[in-house]
Design brief:
Blueprint (H helix, E strand, L loop, with lengths): L19 H10 L7 E3 L2 E3 L14 H8 L13
Antiparallel strand pairs: 1-2
């Protein structure tokens, strides 16, 4: 997950801060509880694996956030 990814219009895709606990919880629960799918960069959570209670974050937003930009995945982060 790229917590610093922005949409084409310049808005942050991920809400950040306390919302990071939702993903961290999934990481901890990966040991025998939560599911995941294999991706080129490792195991990643499915939308339904994250606790979305109290947060308006759609599956389409999740798919955009979790997409891998193959063209720029190895680009220099300073460029």
């Amino acid at each position: 997950m790229n917590w610093f990814r922005k949409s084409p219009d310049g808005h942050w895709l991920w809400l950040g801060f306390r919302q990071n606990m939702r993903v961290l919880r999934w990481i901890v629960e990966r040991t025998g509880v939560a599911s995941a799918f294999a991706a080129p960069i490792g195991w990643m959570p499915n939308y339904e694996d994250i606790d979305w209670r109290g947060l308006d974050f759609t599956e389409d937003q999740w798919i955009e956030l979790m997409s891998i930009d193959r063209e720029n995945e190895n680009a220099d982060p300073d460029s």
